[in-house]
Design brief:
Blueprint: H1 3-7, H2 15-98
Length: 99
């Protein structure tokens, strides 16, 4: 056999390089699939967070209303109790003068 006849054959890729490129492609596809799953989970968590923030905003408005309502009750009760206290002192002073 002549050396020239062997060199004219087209070069075939080495089996090790084909295997390594297949392994790299498989790893890349696996990583893309994992990234896709993580992005889907992140998207779901962001949707949950958005719903929770919306509910929190509604509840904050309700708490503001309740705070105003309770404050008005406290002011009203303080006025009523304050008047009773003043009247009680007046009645007590009148009783002391009569005694």
């Amino acid at each position: 056999m002549d050396r020239n006849t062997t060199s004219t054959k087209p070069s075939l890729p080495r089996p090790s390089s084909v295997a390594s490129s297949n392994a790299a492609s498989t790893n890349k596809n696996r990583q893309y699939a994992h990234l896709h799953a993580q992005l889907a989970q992140l998207n779901a968590h962001l949707a949950d967070t958005e719903n929770l923030l919306r509910m929190t905003a509604v509840q904050a408005q309700d708490m503001r209303f309740l705070g105003g309502y309770v404050g008005a009750l406290f002011m009203g009760s303080a006025k009523v109790l304050g008047e009773e206290s003043v009247q009680g002192r007046g009645n007590q002073a009148a009783e002391d003068k009569e005694s």
